[in-house]
């Protein structure tokens, strides 16, 4: 993943100096941005560096990070999953649909898993066998889930979140939230799958070029479907964790996570065009978003500005990572 | 009209052009020849304004030219017809011809009727009768080319650059094209004619320039140079050096591949061929004859609608790439970047690609093993790169192709199919690939090579099969393998 | 298949579906077929139609505009907030809002060109920024719209709902633009093959400015209409429109990768969607199941209209 080095003839031009700053930023930005943001936070407000605040940061980090990692799988195979937020809300509803006690934890997880796999399979089917654009396909499943959810709850969800889930979602041990531990385990597992396993290698090959994948004997379609299933399952997990955090459940748990996860991935250098990305990138992107949100809150800056900053961040990040089309390669 | 002085251009890892100077006079048809990888397409892109040269000057119509975009070049009167066409598949013929310069009525609005009418007239002048409202995607490749050329005729073109225009047309269509070019020349337009077909270069050009390995070899008047001389300027060595020895027993092995009445989509109609162990069979024909589709179909990448394929002793009515690989087959595709390589990965990943299971231990990839395998191949074929972890995208075309060939060569047991294996690569890599091909063949593999470069066909093939419009029109061996015979079969009406 | 049939397959499909819905509706209720109900549906389509028309242009050029929802919220709030019950301000505010929408669209186009970033990301970011700006202006319902202004949403002209008629007129204008303006034809080219468009030297900048500018204009128009309809501006009023504006575009035959389609199909598809909701209301289907039905329509439609596969 190297950047093209400017040739000596081009560097003489002042515009090229800007270009090389940009390419430096693109290459190292991701490593540097988080420490800078954290440092900035410390400077802006002493409350930022408190253990309490960090704990809260981690609490908010886990659900977004998990969804972002799932989204990165889909983005690497040139797709997009807009249904993740709806999936989160659905599992949140599922978590309150049983007795509300710990006896039904297994049922809750099982039901969530089944729904997630079904949705992932549907998304994958539409994208691979029907050549529907991922945007449209996952948009449709998003609405579908929403419809079922509303129909099921009649617009008014009720019920309790089991205590175990509440612990998982909001409690801490030694200052570290339980959900961070879950995140850690999941992240490590996903990183091994994506970056070390043969399946992960197939994902990158197919994402770079599905045709090449097919010519390598890889079932490109199956790989893509698998990625959508992974995304849905991770979204389901995040939904359960978030329902534990929020405590009460409405039909809108996780609202905004679909776009936030895409933003996190883009900032984390997972490319929309496919074939590029990493678990670490998704995590970094999610962290950047969460830290910015936190700092904005601490500064007492109104939520509106947060949105503006979020918008600006995604545009800037994408612009930094963009490759210029003009100098296409040598044939 | 056009003067290039000392043009140089480099890309990461490779020097495409060094110090090339070229002059195209007004009212001349100037030929540009050179082997694959000589730098012709880079030069064209620079003339077109798509690339900027690293060094050198360009002068057009007696004024210095520093074009920052193709649009600017076009405005000055430079029009390029690319080999791959710059057409819009969903738009109509008339719209494609006039896009950007739509005929307008008095109100300044697009006059569709006039667009269609003038398009039809332009095409008729080229000797082609097409429905101006037809979607370009539905046309044959030859017809599409006519649309491209008609587009060039639309407005004040001072320099027309044609990149391999006769790769897709032949016979009567070529004659018509030449007629039109002569008319253009008479009216003062200059033409830069890039082609592999030396016969045609001799037929239409006033002067010819030879490029080799990114350098200018020389410019000659067409009357003052002979064909063999031109070839030796292009290749720079005795042709005999380039192509390995052909063993006499090449055609006597047992059959490794046989097809019976295979049809694939609507491009391959009825193909029955046989490939034997140890022989190199060249598949010749015009672009659009269905050769690439046949290759993809044999490998399982395209579904076979009729007929059977027999690999060794096993017969199939359908096949998949995974199965093909298990049967010991390999496919080097025509399009390196989008079909043959995982462009975003490194050399090691590109070598292990089809055989991931080999380097997988308990579901995880053994990177050390993968790297060792790649290092072995890198050394064996003298692939120029940083090492097994070098990103494939930074390597030259020739080295990329070597990686692809190395990948298949190490696992191929029965059949290796290569589609235009030396397109766009330098002479050194070419020689290497030819050597690999012959070594594989000597080891018992049957090689099917699709090629449009007739010197390559004549130099490498033990047997030549010629296709036209999805059918085999003939087979040639030994002394019958000549450019003339191949072209006749490629454009004839009779089927074998 | 005859060429005219293949080219217009989606249009015919949508019309067929509209016919089917009417057939079913006829069985369900007499009132469904009444002229009054047709006008009613016509009127209900206005907002969706307005925003989808602009989106059609953007999609045709090979892009997408995800900032529409926020822009609608912003223009809606500005309209009612700035007019604030004062009839004298109507005309200048309307003009200013329309201009603002167009300018925002131009900014989107400019960023896409200058930064070499996919429109999906640019408009996504802009959407967030615009929503933030909207919330800076108003955290809750804001402003007031004088009685005269409501005419825009509820009035009739020649017996037809004014808002819907304006939407139809707007789409006719845009359809003409697409067909007769040279730049309009070039939109299709850029969407069909951006690389070829570059090689041929088409003015991509002007094309993108046109489509995103129009989209911004249409969003502003939608915002105006919504302000007129609700009497106040709401900062979250546009939220659902972003994704909702894509459905009529796709159902109407414009393919997401660009280069093929048109506004007529979008308009018909928007009508179909409203009609379908109308039918569900008549059938007393609860609002919740309506969502399911909508999603099923989308899934059915996209499964049937297999898009041209784009290999890169």
Number of strands of chain C: 2
How many discrete domains of chain A? 1
Which residues of chain C sit in consecutive blocks of at least 5 with pLDDT less than 50?
A: 307-312
Briefly note the structural class of the backbone of chain C.
mainly alpha
* H and E string of chain C: HHHHHHHHEEHHHHHHHH
Please name the CATH architecture of chain A: Orthogonal Bundle
What is the string of SSEs of chain A from the N terminus onward?
HHHHHHHEEHHHHHHH
* Widest sheet: strand ordering of chain C: 1-2
- The 3D shape of chain C can be described as globular
Q: Could you say which structural class the secondary elements and strand pairing of chain A correspond to?
A: mainly alpha
The percent range for helix content of chain C is over 70%
Gyration radius over CA of chain A: 21 Å
Number of strands of chain A: 2
Choose one word for the global shape of chain A. globular
Question: What composes the largest sheet of chain A?
Answer: 2 strands, antiparallel
Largest interface: A-C, 51 and 48 residues
Report what the structure shows.
- The complex is a heterotrimer of chains A (331), B (496) and C (312).
- A two-stranded antiparallel ribbon of chain A has the order 1-2.
- Chain A is mainly alpha-helical.
- Chain A has helices spanning 8-11, 14-44, 51-76, 84-95, 105-129, 134-153, 163-170, 178-196, 198-208, 210-215, 220-246, 257-267, 279-298, 303-321, and strands at 172-173, 176-177.
- Residues 1-13 and 325-331 of chain A have low confidence and may be disordered.
- Chain A contains 14 helices and 2 strands, in the order H-H-H-H-H-H-H-E-E-H-H-H-H-H-H-H.
- Chain B has 496 residues and is of the alpha/beta class.
- Chain B folds into 2 domains: 2-238, Rossmann fold; 241-491, 3-Layer(aba) Sandwich (Rossmann fold).
- In chain B, the strands form 5 sheets. In chain B, strands 6-7-8-3-9-10 form a 6-stranded mixed sheet, with helices on both faces. In chain B, strands 17-20-21-14-22-23 form a 6-stranded mixed sheet, sandwiched between helices. In chain B, strands 11, 12, 13, 15 and 16 form a 5-stranded antiparallel sheet that branches.
- With 312 residues, chain C is mainly alpha-helical.
- Chain C has a domain at 50-262.
- Chain C contains 16 helices and 2 strands.
- In chain C, strand 1 and strand 2 form a beta hairpin.
- In chain C, helix 10 (182-192) packs across helix 11.
- The longest helix of chain C has 27 residues, at 204-230.
- The model of chain C is unreliable at 307-312 (pLDDT under 50).
- At the A-C interface, helix 6, helix 12 and helix 14 of A face helix 7 and helix 16 of C.
């Amino acid at each position: 993943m190297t950047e093209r080095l400017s040739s000596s003839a081009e560097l003489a031009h002042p515009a090229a100096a800007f270009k090389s700053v940009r390419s430096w930023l693109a290459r190292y930005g991701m490593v540097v941005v988080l420490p800078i943001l954290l440092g900035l936070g410390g400077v802006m407000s002493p409350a930022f560096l408190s253990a309490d605040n960090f704990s809260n940061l981690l609490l908010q980090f886990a659900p977004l990070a998990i969804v972002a990692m799932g989204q990165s799988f889909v983005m690497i195979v040139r797709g997009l999953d807009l249904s993740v937020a709806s999936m989160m809300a659905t599992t949140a509803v599922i978590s309150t649909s049983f007795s509300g006690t710990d006896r039904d934890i297994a049922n809750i997880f099982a039901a969530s898993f089944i729904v997630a796999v079904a949705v992932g399979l549907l998304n994958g089917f539409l994208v691979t066998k029907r050549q529907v654009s991922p945007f449209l396909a996952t948009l449709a499943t998003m609405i579908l889930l929403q419809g079922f959810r509303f129909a099921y709850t009649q617009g008014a969800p009720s019920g309790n979140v089991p205590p175990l889930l509440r612990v998982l979602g909001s409690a801490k041990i030694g200052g570290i939230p339980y959900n961070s531990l879950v995140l850690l385990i999941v992240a490590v597992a996903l990183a091994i799958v994506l970056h070390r396993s043969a399946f992960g290698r197939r994902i990158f090959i197919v994402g770079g070029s599905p045709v090449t994948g097919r010519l390598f004997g890889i079932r490109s379609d199956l790989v893509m479907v698998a990625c959508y299933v992974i995304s849905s399952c991770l979204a389901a997990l995040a939904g359960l964790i978030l329902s534990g955090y929020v405590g009460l459940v409405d039909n809108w748990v996780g609202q905004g996570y679909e776009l936030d996860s895409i933003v996190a991935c883009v900032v984390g250098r997972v490319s929309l065009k496919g074939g590029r990305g990493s678990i670490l990138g998704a995590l970094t992107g999610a962290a950047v978003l969460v830290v910015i949100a936190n700092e904005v809150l601490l500064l007492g800056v109104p939520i509106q500005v947060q949105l503006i900053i979020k918008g600006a961040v995604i545009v800037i990040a994408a612009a930094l990572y963009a490759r210029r089309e003009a100098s296409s390669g040598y044939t | 009209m056009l003067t290039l002085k000392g043009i140089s251009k480099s890309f990461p890892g490779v020097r495409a052009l060094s110090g090339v100077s070229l002059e195209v006079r007004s009212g001349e048809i100037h030929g540009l020849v050179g082997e694959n990888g000589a730098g012709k397409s880079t030069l064209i892109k620079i003339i077109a304004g798509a690339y900027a040269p690293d060094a050198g000057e360009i002068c057009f119509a007696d004024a210095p030219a520093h074009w920052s975009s193709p649009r600017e070049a076009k405005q000055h009167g430079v029009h390029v017809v690319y080999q791959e066409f710059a057409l819009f598949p969903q738009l109509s013929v008339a719209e494609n011809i006039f896009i950007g310069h739509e005929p307008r009525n008095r109100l300044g609005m697009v006059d569709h009727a006039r667009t269609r009418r003038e398009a039809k007239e332009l095409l008729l002048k080229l000797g082609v009768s097409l429905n101006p409202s037809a979607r370009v995607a539905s046309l044959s490749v030859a017809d599409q080319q006519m649309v491209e050329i008609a587009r060039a005729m639309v407005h004040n073109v001072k320099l027309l650059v044609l990149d391999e225009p006769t790769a897709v047309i032949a016979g009567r269509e070529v004659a018509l094209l030449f007629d039109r070019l002569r008319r253009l020349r008479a009216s003062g337009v200059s033409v830069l004619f890039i082609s592999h077909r030396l016969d045609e270069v001799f037929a239409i050009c006033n002067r010819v320039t030879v490029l080799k390995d990114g350098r200018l070899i020389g410019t000659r008047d067409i009357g003052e140079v002979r064909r063999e001389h031109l070839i030796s300027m292009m290749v720079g060595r005795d042709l005999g050096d380039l192509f390995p020895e052909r063993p006499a027993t090449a055609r006597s092995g047992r059959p490794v591949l046989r097809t019976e009445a295979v049809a694939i989509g609507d491009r391959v109609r009825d193909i029955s061929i046989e490939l034997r162990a140890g022989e190199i069979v060249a598949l010749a024909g015009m672009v659009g004859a269905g050769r690439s589709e046949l290759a993809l179909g044999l490998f399982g990448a395209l579904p076979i609608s009729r007929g059977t394929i027999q690999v060794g002793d096993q017969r199939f009515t359908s096949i998949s790439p995974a199965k093909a690989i298990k049967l010991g087959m390999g496919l080097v595709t025509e399009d390196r970047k989008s079909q043959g390589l995982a462009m975003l990965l490194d050399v090691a990943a590109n070598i292990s690609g089809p055989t991931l299971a080999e380097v997988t231990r308990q579901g995880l990839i053994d990177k050390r093993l993968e790297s060792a395998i790649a290092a072995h191949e890198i050394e064996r074929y003298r692939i120029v790169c940083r090492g097994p972890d070098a990103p494939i995208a930074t390597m030259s075309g020739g080295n990329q192709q070597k990686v692809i060939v190395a990948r298949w060569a190490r696992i191929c047991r029965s059949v290796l199919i290569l589609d235009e294996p030396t397109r766009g690569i330098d002479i050194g890599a070419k020689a290497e690939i030819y050597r690999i091909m012959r070594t594989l063949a000597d080891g018992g593999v049957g090689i099917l090579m699709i090629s449009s470069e007739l010197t390559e066909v004549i130099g490498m093939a033990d047997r030549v099969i010629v296709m036209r419009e999805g059918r085999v029109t003939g087979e040639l061996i030994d002394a019958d393998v000549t450019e003339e015979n191949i072209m006749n079969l490629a454009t004839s009406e009779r089927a074998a | 298949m005859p060429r005219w049939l293949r080219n217009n397959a989606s249009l015919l499909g949508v019309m067929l579906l509209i016919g089917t819905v009417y057939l079913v509706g006829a069985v369900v209720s007499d009132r469904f077929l009444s002229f009054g109900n047709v006008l009613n549906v016509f009127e209900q389509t206005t907002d969706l139609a307005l925003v989808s028309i602009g989106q059609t242009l953007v999609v045709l050029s090979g892009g997408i505009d995800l900032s529409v929802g926020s822009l609608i919220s912003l223009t809606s709030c500005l309209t009612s907030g700035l007019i604030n019950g004062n009839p004298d301000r109507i005309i200048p505010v309307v003009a200013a809002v329309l201009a603002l929408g167009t300018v925002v669209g131009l900014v989107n186009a400019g960023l896409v060109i200058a930064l070499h970033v996919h429109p999906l990301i640019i408009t996504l970011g802009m959407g967030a920024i615009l929503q933030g700006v909207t919330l800076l202006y108003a955290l809750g319902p804001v402003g007031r719209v004088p009685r005269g202004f409501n005419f825009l949403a509820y009035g009739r002209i020649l017996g037809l709902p004014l808002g819907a008629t304006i939407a139809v007129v707007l789409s006719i204008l845009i359809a003409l633009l697409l067909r007769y303006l040279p730049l309009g034809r070039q939109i299709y080219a850029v969407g069909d093959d951006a690389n070829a468009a570059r090689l041929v030297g088409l003015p991509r900048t002007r094309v993108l400015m046109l489509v995103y500018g129009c989209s911004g204009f249409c969003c502003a128009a939608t915002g105006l209409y919504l302000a007129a309809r609700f009497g106040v501006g709401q900062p979250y009023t546009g939220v659902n429109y972003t994704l909702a504006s894509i459905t009529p575009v796709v159902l109407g035959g414009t393919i997401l990768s660009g280069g093929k389609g048109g506004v007529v199909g979008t308009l018909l598809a928007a009508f179909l969607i409203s009609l379908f909701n109308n039918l569900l209301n008549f059938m007393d289907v609860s609002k919740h199941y309506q969502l399911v039905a909508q999603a099923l329509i989308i899934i059915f439609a996209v499964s049937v209209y297999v898009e041209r596969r784009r290999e890169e």
